[in-house]
Structure formats: C-alpha cells, structure tokens
C-alpha cells in the first residue's frame, strides 16, 4: 500500500465503502409457497470454518444410517434411503463432496459386506467446469450450464444413497468470488427452489436427508448472501461441525451463536479431536443442552483412504445419528400436540373458544420476514409458507433482512442494557429513540416523549395530558380551586368519532362510543364519557372513490357528496374552501353547542381521533376534510387535540405520520404497533411544550403521576430507533419515494378497481400497506355473511395467504418494505378466489 | 474409540456432561465499585481466531501513536504515552506479546530516529514460568508467583511505551488448560481488578491504552470463563482482528456477532490481506458502519524482522488510530451531552421536571447483571459502577450470567419468530410459557393463561374476568336480563385494601382507594369504585416484629396486637384459630354488611389484593392472617378473588408465588415485572376453569373482548419461559433452597435488627429480595424528611449503590440470584451511612 495520509486513506475507505455493495445485507426472499416435507429428518450440515470435516461427518452419518447390520435394521418393508445434497460446490471437479460421500460409502459397503445402491450426480455448473469436463453445453442467461453428470451403482432392494451436487464452480474459492469470476451466478430463490425440489422424497419412510453447506456458517453463497441467511427461510435443524484445534473453542462458539442469532436450532456439535479437550468448555457453554461429540484424530497422511478412521468413528456417528433421529421425533411430536395443547391452556383475546375446534388452530413454527412457516399435520407432515396478511395484527414490519438486523440489535441491547429504570435516567436507546421521534413524526410540533407499553396505555396518558391542559386553559370556566374535592362536580368529556377505537383499558374504552365491545358484561364500569359524532366516509366502489355522508347531516349536504377522480383529490387541501367544508364546520359547531347547552357541568376537554382510517372499527376511511375541520373547530375552542396514530402511524398508511395526510398537527399523538417495526411492545405519547408545561410546578403532585415499570425499556427503544431509521431510508426500504417522502403505491390500481367492481364487494379501501374490502351482505343474514368471509379466507390460506376476517371485512396488510410485486401477487389471488367464490 | 453401542455411548456422554462443569456459564463478577478512566481512549484488541496478528495490530497502532514526526505531533506540553496490557499470556517466555511490542517499537524508533522511552514488565506467573526464568519465588495460594520481571530504556522527555504482561503461563495452550496444568489459577475478579489498576494513567493527556486478549473472542480465560464474558463488566470498545483467509469472512462475522451479543461496541475490523478481497462482503455485512481496514500480506519468512512490513502498513495503522480516536471522542461527547439532552426531550413518569436539574440526571452507559455502569462527567471523566438497588424499578432479575443467556435467547427468538399474532395461533414460546406458568405459579388452581403487556392491563383483564364470573354466579341477585341497557343500574364494585396499588390505567386506578395519585387533576374520571378496608400491618422496629392494627378496629382487638419472635411465626397457619382471626373475620363481615345495606344497587363483585406486601403504597407488610381471612370471607360469598402479584410474584418476596406465603389460592392472579426476568414487558392473568367457563357460549360477544396487538409476543414469552426455569433451578440460581423451594435468606439478620433499632428508623420490612426501611419523621416536616432521605441516597450512590426514595421509604432490592454476600455488603454500607448521617 502506497503511503497516503491517514485522512486521505479514510476518504478512500469511505468512498470504497459506498462503491461496494453486495447482497449480504439482504436475506434471500423465499421461493413462493414452499412445502418442506417433515415425514423424515432433514439436517443442514454447518461448519465453524472451512476444512473442519463437514463431508467426513456427512459420510459418517450416511454410513451409520445405511450400513446397519441386519439385526438392527428396520423391518424389510421400510426402504432405507439417504439423500445427500451439496447445493454449492467450488473447486470442482477436484473437490467434489458428493463424489467423496458416494465413493466412501461404496468402499464401506464393500468392506462391511452390506449391499448399497449408490448414485452421484452434478446438476448444474459454470462454463469452466463444463469445459474441464469436456462437455459442450448450452449456457443459460445466468451463466449456468445444465451439466447433468451422473454415476451410479444399483443393487436391487438395497438401501439407497443419492448424492447430488446442485451447482458447481471451478475455482477453489468462496462461491461468491467463483460465481463472479466464472460469470455464472445463481439467485438465492433459485437455489432454495432447487433444494426444495430435491428434498422431496415422497412418502417413503426411513429416509434421512443431509444438506451440506459450503465453508463456514457465515461464508457467502454465490449471490453474496451469507449462507446462514440464504437457507434461513427453510430453518432446517443443523449439525455444527466444530473446531478441535487451538482457538477452536472460540470459533465453534461464535459459529453456534451466528446460527442461533438467525433462529436456527442446532441438534449437535461434533468435531475432530486434537487432544485439547475442547469439549469441556463447549459442553459447559452449551449447558449440556446440545450434545458435543468428539471424533478421533483424522490421519494426516494423504494416501490414507480413511476407511479405518470411519470404522473407528462408527460409535460416534451412531450416537450422532441417534441424536438426529430423536431430536427430529421430539420436534414432530411437539408440533403434532401443539394445537390441542393450545386449546387447553391459552385464553386467546377476542376469541370465543367454543367456536375454535382443534383443526382451526394454526401451528406456527417460525416466521421469516413477512411469511409464516406453518406446520401442517394433515396428510404428509410438512412445513408450508403463508404470507402474514394480518401483518401480525397490524404491528408487523420487517422483511427478512430487517428481521435479521433487528435480531442482532436486540441481542446487543439485551446484553448491553438489559432493562434500566427510566425516571431521571438517560441511556442511549431511549435518547436516540426520543430524538428520532421528535425529528420525525413529531417534527414541527412535539417537544416531549412519554413512553409506555402499548397503544391503550399511550391513550390513557394522552387523555390525562389533554384534560390537564384543558383544565389549566379553562381554569375560570371550570372554577377550579385548590380543593380537589370541589372539582368533583366538573365533568370532563372527550369529543370522538363514532366507530373509532382507542384500546381496551377502561380509560381508552370510555373515549369510544358504545358498541358490543363496551357492553355491561364486557366491562360494567363503562359509561361512554364523550360526545360521539358520526363521520363522513370515503371508499371505492364500482371502480370509483365515493363520499358517504352520515344521516345526521342536513338534507342539503347530500348534494355535496359524490365521487372523486383520484385518491389524491380527497386529500387535496383546496377542499378547505369548498361548500362541504362549510357544511362540516357548521355541523360540528352545532353539535358542540347543543351538547354544552344540554349540561352545565359537562365540558368537552379533548378531541381524540384516529386520523384517516378507523382500523378496528372496520377499516373505514374518514373524509380527511371532515377531520381537519374538526381539529380546527377544537383548536378555536382551546380543546386539546389527540391523534391516535397507534394503528395509522409509521407507514401503515404510506406516510410516517398521518398528520401529513391530514394536513394539520395535533397537540398530543400516540404511537405503538409499527413503532418497533413489529417486534415488541412499546408506545409513546408525544406532546407539545404547552401541554408539558401544564404539569410543571413546585410540587411533585402536579407532575404526571402515571408510569409503568418498563417505561422506555431499552429493548423497545433500540428496536424502535432501528425501525424508524430503516423504514424511512431509501437504501434499506426500497419502497420509499425519496422525493415525496412517502411509500410508493403497493397495490396495483387496475386490480383494486376490478375488485371494487366485483358483485360481492360492498366497498374497498386502499392506502399505504392496507388493502381492505367489505363483503356485501346481499340478501344474507349477518351470520351467513361472516361464514362467506370465512370460507374465502380458507381458500386464501390454501393459496399461501394468512388472513383473518374483521367481521365482514377482509383485508391484506403488507410491511412497509414489502415489494409491490408481492402485493400484486396477493391481490391477484384474492381476485381469482372472489371470482371462483361467486360462481360457487 | 472402542466400539460401544450407540445407546451406551449416549449414556456415557450424558454422564460426562454432568461431570464436566467449567466456569464459562457464569460471567465473572465485576470487582466491587470499579472506576474506569475515560479521559483517554482504551481499546480491547480482539481476534476472530488465534494467530491472526493481534499483536502485529497492537504494535502498528503503538507505532503510529508514538512515532509521529514532530510536525504532526501535539504541543510539547502534552506528553504522549501508550500503555499496552496483555492480561493473559500463555507459552511464556517463548511467546511474549508484550516483549514483541516492546522490541518492535524499539527497532522502529531507531529506524525512524524518533526517541522513545520503553519498558516491558511481566507481573505474575505460574511456577513453571518462574522456574524457567530461574527465579525462586514465593508461590501464593492460587499458585501464582509475583514474577515482577521488567526491562526498560528511558529517554527523558520522549514519548513513553509501557508494555505489561499481567499473568503468564508456560504451556502454549488455552489459558484455562495452562492454569490447570501449572496449578496456577486466577479468579476473574482478580484479573479485572488488576487490569483496572494498570489502566489508571492519572490525568495525563494524549494517552492511549490497549488491552490485548488471548486467542479468539470466545476463548476461555484462566478460570474457564470465555474472555468475551470475562471482560464484559468494563465493556471497553474493541478492535476486531479479522481473518483474511479462505473461510475468514465467516469467522470474522461470527466473532463480531459474539461480541455484539455481549453488548460490546467494535470500532473497526482489520485483517491481513490474503488476496481474497474479504473486505467486500465484510463491508457489506457491516453496512458500512464499522470501517474495515486491510493490512498488506505479512512476510512468511521467519527470519524477517517485519520492520519493512510495519513501514509499509503505516498508512493503514494511521487510519486505524484515527478511527479509534474519533470513535472515542464521539462517545465522550455524546456521554457529556446526554444529561442535558434528556432533560429537554424526555417526559419522565412520576417526575416533576422542574425539580430535576441536569446534575441529577444519571447517565447510564450499560448494565452488567445487577450493576449499572454510570458515566461521571465531574472531575476526570470515568465510568463507575453502582449496584441497582431499585432493581430497575422492581422488574430486574438477571445476574451477569443470566443476562448473557437472555441476550442469546432474545436474539434467537427475534430471528426465529419476530412477532406472531396470537388469537387462534400457537407457537413454541407462548405455549412453553403458558405450560410453565400453569405448572408453577398457577399450580393447583389455574388452568388458563391470558397474556397482555403490563401489570395495569393484566389487572384490567382480571377485573373483567372477575365481574363476569360474579355476574354469572349472582344472576338472580342482579336480576340480569338479556337487555344490556337494563344492567346499567347495577353497580359492581371491588373490595380492596387501603394502600394497595394496581396500576395507572383508569380501570386499575378505580380499584384503588383515593390518594394524591388519583386526584382530579391527575385523572378527572377517577371515582374510586370500591369498598376499601384498612389492613393490619407487621414490621420490625427496635429489633422485633410488631403487629399494628388500624384504628377502625374495636378497642378490644388491640390486646391481640403485639410482637412476634420470628417472621415465620407471622406466616404460621396455626394463627387461623387465634382470637385475632375471629376478630378479623368479624370486622370484615361487619364492613361488608354495612356496605351492602348502604346501597341497594352496589355489589362487591371482586376482591383484589396485593398479597403480603403493598409495594408502591410504601412497602407495607400486611398481616397475612388478615388477607387469608379476607379471602375466605369472599369465597363464602362467591366473590371472585384476584391476587395482584405484579410486584410480589416471581421470587420478589422469596417465593415464586405469594399464594404459598399466604396459604390460600386465588381465582385469578396477575403477574408481570419479574415474569420476564426483568427484560421486557409482558403480563399474564391466570384464571381457573370456572372463571374461563363464564365466558363460554355460542356467541363471540360472550367472549372476553379485550386484547393487545402484542398479546403473547414471542420475545416476551421466550424470555419469561427462560426466566421461570432459570430462577427456580438450583443449578442456575444458587439462592434456591432445594428442600423448601424458596430463596435462602439474603439479608443478614443481625444487620437488619441493628438497622431497625436505629433512632432514625421508624420501621423495617425484609422479605425475599426486598429490604425496606421507613425513616422517622422525627420532629421534622415532611419536606425536611424527604430531603433527609435524599441526602442519605446521595451518600449511598457514592458507595456504589443506586437507590431512589419512595417518599420516606428507602429500599434495597436484589435480583433472585444475587448472592447474600452482595446483599450483606449493601446492608453494611447502609448501616454505616445511617450512623454517619445521624451524627451530622
């Protein structure tokens, strides 16, 4: 390296860093709708480093599985088969792990005098490989050739060994370099699809499948994606080949941690003995939960064919095989029992248990980004994939890459901070989170952040803030004296919209209009402490956006309702000067006036709204003009304004804050759900300086005496900080339209309009990550309609879309990073199913 | 390996695993009250594996720091000094990294003609080392000798290099093996203390300190503790020496992840070039946040003195040094600004901001187990340690080993599950958590688990459950019809104890008696929907346990009050047949009777109590006999019983559930706080089958329609499952008394009694992890008393104990795993300070 000044060098480094971008930050997207057989064990063979003997281990397992003495073999009816896959092979054909397994098993079979059918094949390769094998083949666009090399020895009725190399490169270097140099790349999703296809062994019993990785656990695959990320969607259990040398304890533990940090399970650690008793600290670290097995030293003489070593190692491999089988059986047994067990111990929210038979319970083995991996016990056991279109109940954000990043962040935060009590303290995640909030969703109005645990608590806090501010501003009106008892006759209420929802704790419930959810048998203490107005709504039906005014509006107003050409028109601020705006304003004034005349002691002390969309109330889009008028009317009366952005905030509706859609600012706003990227509970209530000041004084009793032990917990704050940054950065969220600062349109307009014109569809609402449709009641009873919704949902689940009805409303929800292509696919499936359904 | 059957082998393995227990599962306890200087940068030099050139990197950094041309050197007034520490050295004296740095800097100083004062010393060693160096020394108990070898070359006024090896062993193997073989061990805390002492460089400026680790990041230290765990309490920033070879990407990434997973920050990754451009995938993985620097290939010729290589590498080391300095400066700048920034953006709960000057804000850099690492800006910048005696506001549980384990578990859970919506679904963490709860705190009575996010929401849910059960059981009494409107006249209330606290959301507040926290200006909707009874309390004063009856009790009852010989006596069930029990029973009956006569429509629909200790109410211990009587009286009247164990549950009071202390079971119980080991929010409401059944029916509207988006979030459930198992297992929690199934006594009885006899102390309550004392008001005003408390707390913070008053109550809270020795030390300091305080 030529001598350059340090500053220059740093500049160069920075420059360089911008230039070089590989795939490894993005975890590979899974192939759509995969189906992994679970009727036999499948293991990934990982290694802490290169050259630690992964293939020796695969060979040993294969031998102990296939070459059993008849006495211990299973009944003859059960064919025995081992499938060995090497998806990625470099240094080929000099190095061919599948050939190694093939040839060693051949030798061992001869030596033990146990017949074996064996085969080895290499499916695709780079051109240099094909050339070196003297084959002239057609090269595909990606630079890959269909090599289709194979060799085999068949013995009828004997146990079978199938060895397959899926992709081979010539250079003995890391796959991402080989792929680059040999101009032969392969996409992650193609590798996965290929692995999935090859793993399919039908319903044969006594099958074992091994998938051997290349290099170390975090070595890049051909696209540059780290292998531990590449294979993550399948989340196959693993065997980790550790390092028995000096320094090998560290490498083995770190590799193990990299696997765990990606959600993998490791069934056993196995390594070659180098006389350093590395198994002692490894066992200690693993707390004896994962067995550690030690293989005898491998002969260093290159002429040694290792057959003696395999014989010597037989006991260890038998033990390893037993561990693999028992871990597999335990997993399947557990998965089989979970639905029943869940029905016996859980008390699910919003669920009438009597109506949930065991078959209806979904057993979820894991999630990878937007997709669930679901266990299907029916038919052949398998793990299938479903897109989580409930976006895990409106909280979920991460794509696979972001989930992996968050996992690292959360591990780090737990280790660095654990939890730290908040009052009068400061620690990095809480401060950073607060700064990002005030510079983002609170920009231009908020100056304080109050942390709590969920939307409902954030709302309770916002009400306490608003009422205090109101009381301070209206001291004379309320004739508040120092004597708390005298204040009892003052009745402070909220102004809210019918159909809005703010949470399930009593204070949040009181701010909602009466509904079946607030009945006496649900919460006998509920009274409904508010003035509840009927809002005008907008929606798409028959291919156009419509406005619908509530019946309470004067007859004359109905002339103003009608259709909009585009959604943007609805949000256009020019509507502020329309006749409709005047009608809205008059209607609000009148109702406020009536209310205050009807009671001397009741005062409207706060306005609370869900901006733009009423979520739990049925995915209704409220006319934003009406909400803006409402805010202005309240502001004129010094009534504090609360935006409940628990559902709507953080990109759910395509913008970071819906205040931007509405075109006006609140005094107080609540956020939760997507705030942490959909990982763990955290909520914030943001407030202006003026609201904060109404709690300032010389006495602690004047302070806001509300809090939760986990206020501003480090884990939540760190995740939130990460999510806020990730979602709004065009580098990490490809959906961000940098110029407008909004999400690009995720739902195909053409499909949306088609669906809205469907005869079974009453209305459609589409905004940001949300697509919702309400099914028509038609002439059916409400019960029948919800059954109708239910069977539609069942069909969608068959298509790999996990949905759950909200009454008569069917919705699809993506994460803020989900690609429009995926959304398109969801919508197309929905349209198709609606069509079929209609015919039925 | 001799051929054994697989089964036998597995047995042997299992057996072996039980025998071998090393230190590495336990993270080392930090030396008490450390103080790390922050007036100059200090870095740990880590490596992804052995032999990757850690010492070359240390040497290069030293050269670029010390051997600057005068033009670029700082003003003469600033002395320049580099301290190189090698705490653990094996293979000595053949391998001596401190000697290598020393001798290379000597050569480089000569070559560059820049004078340098250099020294190298080796402080302690094993006997074989001492013998090989022909020294006869006294061997300490641990087998260590004070070697005190040193060599130096002094040049007055020149920059200084101090190289020190702290502990040396002869064998060139892992330190834990060398320590064992050479019978020379050293405890983790001793290593840390030694490192801390050596790092102290006074107030000199322009100092850089390097601490070079041995082997890989997770290589065991001499005690067997992994080095990344060993050094964790200091959490020094690190430089990671990566691996440029084939497979090195994986090893480097995994090592990096192991460091992050322990809460470390890594300032830069540096590695030797092997022509494989490993920096590209590494940069991509690190998302360009951590610089990756590449060193030229190291000459392989053993006769090469590497001087030319150092010259060639100068630019890279200068860049590395600059990164180290700028990362350090950014950190200190951030730490310096945090207190002010916090005061401007946070809205702390329960805090009158006007009374919190910037100086009172505690800046917390991290936590390690029970200890905070606190940044002190006053005087010399430093990081000091304080025991978190608020147990992070009553939630905190982990010791350092458990925190590390939880961090791994949370990283895994985030990666495997993220968050999954709960209704009608099942996934492993939620199921496992529910099973452990029903088999633990719910054993013998509960059959259903309802998840929510915090204590307050768990209470709201419990009230909804209890009221429904009550309504179903008393249908006739309440004359409930199907018409919900008609039910409005029925007024369902709670029975609760004065001074109990159940949360800050409105529903939970309504179950509490009026207090300054429930006033109109805090929550104008609060009315206090209950019958609130005054409870008898017990406490220690003047060396004895006393019973105090409320004034509302009849005169005759006071004869029954008095003292107890032991705390066990208070919990003795034989008291059930005492006169006092009869008095209690009569009192409760009478008050219930009076209440029901006073109102036709009001019905007591639930009993809610905090068993044994009223936490937020002032750490009052309620006579358990009274609570037991109360429960029985309610049961006789078919009033559902709720135990609010949010504060008291999960070992806070020395038992997993306080139902065991009380000797009776509830119908419903709430848990939160320690449930997750004090990591993240999660709450559960447990219920009996009978309660669950009262929500069963054919209509969804009869179901419990309360829920939160993060209900049963995987992260919380996984953490809780881990914590439940960890705290109750004597293998992991050494405080568990296996026979009794309780925690052993943590607080020294003698000290407790002394404190209770102190003239400034009104009363003491001690149970489980809790020690609390109330200061006497004396003749002082309440304001004065709280100042008194405050200055006591300031003194305790100087002693390394972080406390925060609860009004006039000073408490110390440990985790369930905190050793009695630590608790003893805390108590002794408190007693000492009380004494001093009194004299003042």
TrEMBL record, chains A, B:
Coiled coil start-end: none
Substrates-to-products reaction catalysed: (7R,8S)-7,8-diammoniononanoate + CO2 + ATP = (4R,5S)-dethiobiotin + ADP + phosphate + 3 H(+); (8S)-8-amino-7-oxononanoate + S-adenosyl-L-methionine = S-adenosyl-4-methylsulfanyl-2-oxobutanoate + (7R,8S)-7,8-diammoniononanoate
EC nos: 2.6.1.62, 6.3.3.3
GO biological process, one term: biotin biosynthetic process
Key word Protein transport present: no
Gene Ontology CC entries for this record: mitochondrion
Acyltransferase recorded as keyword: no
Predominant subcellular localization, coarse grouping: mitochondrion
CDD domains xrefs: DTBS (cd03109)
Cofactor: Mg(2+); pyridoxal 5'-phosphate
Alphabetic keyword roster: Aminotransferase, ATP-binding, Biotin biosynthesis, Ligase, Magnesium, Metal-binding, Mitochondrion, Multifunctional enzyme, Nucleotide-binding, Pyridoxal phosphate, S-adenosyl-L-methionine, Transferase, Transit peptide
Stored PANTHER family: ADENOSYLMETHIONINE-8-AMINO-7-OXONONANOATE AMINOTRANSFERASE, DETHIOBIOTIN SYNTHASE
Descriptive protein name: Bifunctional dethiobiotin synthetase/7,8-diamino-pelargonic acid aminotransferase, mitochondrial
Record organism: Brassica napus (Rape)
Taxonomic lineage from the root: Eukaryota, Viridiplantae, Streptophyta, Embryophyta, Tracheophyta
Gene: BnaC09g32740D
């Amino acid at each position: 390296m030529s001598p350059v000044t340090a500053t220059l060098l740093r500049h160069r480094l920075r420059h360089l860093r911008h230039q070089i971008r590989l795939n490894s930050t993005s975890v590979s997207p899974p192939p759509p709708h995969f189906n992994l057989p679970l009727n036999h064990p499948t293991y990934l063979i990982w290694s802490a480093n290169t050259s630690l003997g992964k293939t020796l281990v695969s060979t040993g397992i294969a031998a102990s599985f296939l070459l059993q003495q008849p006495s211990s073999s299973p009944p003859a009816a059960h064919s025995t088969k081992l499938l060995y896959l090497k998806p990625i092979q470099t240094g080929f054909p000099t190095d061919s792990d599948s050939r190694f397994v093939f040839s060693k098993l051949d030798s061992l079979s001869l030596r033990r005098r146990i017949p074996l059918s064996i085969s080895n094949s290499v499916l695709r390769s780079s051109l240099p490989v094909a050339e070196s094998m003297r084959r002239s083949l057609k090269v595909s666009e990606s630079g890959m050739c269909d090599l289709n090399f194979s060799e085999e020895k068949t013995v009828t009725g004997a146990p079978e060994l199938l060895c397959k190399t899926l992709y081979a490169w010539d250079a003995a270097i890391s796959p991402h370099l080989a792929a680059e140099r040999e101009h032969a790349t392969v996409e992650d999703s193609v590798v996965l699809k290929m692995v999935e296809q090859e793993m399919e062994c039908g319903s044969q019993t006594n099958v074992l499948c091994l998938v051997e990785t290349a290099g170390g656990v975090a070595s890049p695959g051909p696209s540059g994606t780290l292998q531990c990320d590449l294979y993550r969607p399948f989340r196959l259990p693993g065997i980790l080949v550790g390092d028995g040398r000096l320094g090998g304890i560290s490498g083995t533990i770190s590799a193990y941690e990299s696997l765990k940090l990606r959600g993998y399970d490791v069934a056993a650690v196995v390594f070659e003995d180098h006389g350093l008793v590395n198994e002692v600290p490894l066992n200690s670290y693993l707390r004896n939960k994962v067995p550690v097995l030690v293989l005898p030293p491998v002969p260093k003489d290159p002429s040694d064919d290792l057959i003696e070593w395999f014989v010597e190692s037989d006991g260890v491999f038998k033990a390893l095989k037993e561990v693999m089988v028992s871990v597999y059986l335990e997993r399947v047994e557990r998965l089989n029992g979970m639905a029943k067990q869940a029905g016996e111990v859980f008390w699910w929210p919003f669920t009438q248990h009597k109506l949930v038979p065991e078959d209806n319970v979904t057993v979820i083995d894991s999630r990878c980004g937007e997709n669930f991996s679901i266990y299907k016990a029916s038919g052949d056991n398998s793990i299938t994939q479903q897109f989580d279109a409930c976006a895990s109940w409106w909280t979920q954000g991460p794509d696979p890459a972001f989930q992996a990043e968050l996992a690292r962040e959360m591990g780090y935060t737990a280790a660095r901070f654990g939890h730290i009590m908040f009052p009068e303290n400061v620690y990095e995640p809480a401060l950073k989170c607060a700064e990002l909030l005030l510079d983002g969703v609170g920009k231009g109005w908020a100056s304080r952040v109050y942390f709590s645990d969920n939307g409902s608590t954030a709302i309770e806090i916002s009400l306490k803030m608003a009422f205090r501010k109101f009381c301070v501003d209206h001291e004379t009106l309320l004739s508040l004296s120092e004597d708390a008892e005298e204040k009892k006759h003052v009745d402070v209420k909220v102004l809210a919209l019918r159909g809005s929802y703010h949470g399930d704790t009593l204070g949040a419930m009181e701010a909602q209009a009466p509904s079946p959810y607030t009945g006496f048998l649900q919460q006998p203490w509920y009274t409904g402490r508010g003035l509840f107005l009927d809002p005008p709504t907008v929606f798409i039906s028959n291919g156009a956006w419509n406005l619908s005014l509530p019946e309470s509006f004067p007859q004359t107003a109905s002339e103003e309702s009608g259709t909009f050409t585009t959604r943007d028109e609805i949000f256009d601020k020019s509507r502020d000067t329309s006749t409709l705006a005047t009608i809205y304003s008059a209607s609000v004034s009148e109702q406020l006036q009536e209310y205050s005349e009807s009671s001397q002691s009741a005062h409207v002390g706060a306005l609370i709204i869900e901006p733009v969309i009423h979520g739990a109330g049925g995915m209704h889009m409220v006319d934003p003009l009406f909400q803006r008028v409402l805010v202005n009317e309240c502001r004129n009366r010094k009534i504090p304004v609360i935006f409940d952005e628990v559902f709507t905030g953080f990109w759910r509706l395509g913008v970071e804050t819906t205040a931007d859609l509405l075109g006006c600012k609140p005094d107080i706003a609540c956020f939760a759900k997507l705030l942490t990227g959909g990982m763990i509970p955290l909520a914030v209530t943001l407030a202006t300086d003026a609201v904060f000041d109404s709690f300032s004084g010389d006495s602690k009793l004047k302070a806001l005496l509300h809090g939760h032990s986990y206020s501003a917990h480090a884990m939540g704050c760190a995740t939130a900080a990460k999510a806020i940054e990730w979602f709004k950065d065009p580098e990490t969220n490809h959906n961000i339209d940098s110029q407008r600062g909004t999400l690009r349109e995720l739902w195909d307009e053409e499909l949306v309009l088609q669906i809205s014109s469907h005869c079974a569809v009453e209305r459609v609402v589409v905004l940001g990550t949300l697509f919702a449709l309400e099914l028509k009641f038609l002439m059916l009873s409400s019960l029948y309609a919800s059954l109708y919704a239910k069977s539609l949902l069942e069909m969608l689940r068959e298509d790999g879309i996990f949905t759950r009805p909200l009454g008569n409303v069917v919705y699809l929800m993506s994460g803020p990073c989900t690609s429009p292509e995926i959304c398109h696919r969801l919508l197309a499936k929905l349209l198709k199913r609606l069509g079929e359904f209609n015919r039925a």
